[in-house]
Amino acid sequence: MPSPLPAADFYDYESLLSDAESAKLAQLREFLAAEVAPYATTWWNDADFPAHILPKIAALHLAAPDRRKYSHLFTGLVVAEMTRTDTSLATFFLVHHDLFVQALYDFGSEEQKARLLPDAIALRTTGAFALTEPDHGSDVAGGMVTTALRVQDDGGTHWVLNGAKRWIGNGTFCDHMLMWARDAETGEVRGFILDASLPGVTRTKIEHKIALRTVQNAHIVLDGVQVLERDRFAGIGSFRDTNTLLRGSRISVAWQAVGQQLAAFDVARAYALERPQFGKPLASFQLIQGQLVKMLGNATASLAMMVRIAGLQDRGGDADATMAQVALAKAHTTAAMRETVAMGRSILGGNGIVTDYGMAKIFADAEAIYTYEGTHEVNTLIAGRAITGVSAIV
Fold this sequence. Notes:
- The protein is built from twelve helices and nine strands.
- By secondary structure, it is of the alpha+beta class.
- The protein folds into two domains: about 1-125 and about 240-394, Up-down Bundle (Butyryl-CoA Dehydrogenase, subunit A, domain 3), CATH 1.20.140.10; about 125-240, Butyryl-CoA Dehydrogenase, subunit A, domain 2 (Beta Barrel), CATH 2.40.110.
- The relative contact order is 0.12.
């Protein structure tokens, strides 16, 4: 009987996990294999979000893993493993947990945490992160035009929000959004817990996407939306306050780039072993083996970079991963991912452009990861500024 083929984690980085973490990761894999993998392509093709599995995801108790005393390596591997099975579901998880739930932990008042966290952690309610605007993506911190006007009257203090947001993941169905707006009086950027059902909130699904089709991205319009003072994020005084939050989400997206590469390698290797050409398996050809090894090398190097980032996070304090280190990781892993998924698609030939064989979905979703949470170019310039002391960003 032939020996089993080595795992895509070729250097066994998972062995660095504790026994409890390894068991939890195995539980996640079992869930993904049973509840997600058989249906993910159908959800993607239909651009349909599987809301029915949210209680099952909540039952895994993976919300805010670092607050459950798990290592950052485990947290990253959870993201990679989810992405390996379905990038769209992993993206939902990141938007809700890394950006909305984590914001409540980091910036919410005790009253806000008590009121909102239990339901959000249990996925009885869902959240979104409303930052990007129709005309402002990478430059949104300085270019944000959505406004919040503070109003004081006999009923107390409230805020009136006007503007628009775009590409808001979970935006079509979420219960709450972390809504970013510029204070009309001070010019500072503030954060609000926006009840998505408030009058004046219009949500329109963005159609015709070629990536992350299961994710429900929305175009949001705010027309005189009144938000109570109690729903202003207590801990956010300016955009600078969110660096830790945004750094964490950027790390998670770099882990997604790892998961995408592992998925591409899995599909390409299986196909090459099973597909006969010229009377023998495709895997027997030297050029195919060269491509598979390159894919594995890219995935392994990306994983190694992220393992080091996780180590810096675990050390904390001044040794925590800096924004420049994270920017380099996001830029490098997503560039490697693009090459890896392109090779995988090539190995599948014509079958690589239809979702029936798995690779087309992986290939398309990689384009979104390459762009969101800071484009490849912007992250490159952040790292470039750190190593030269000169900013190329206006």
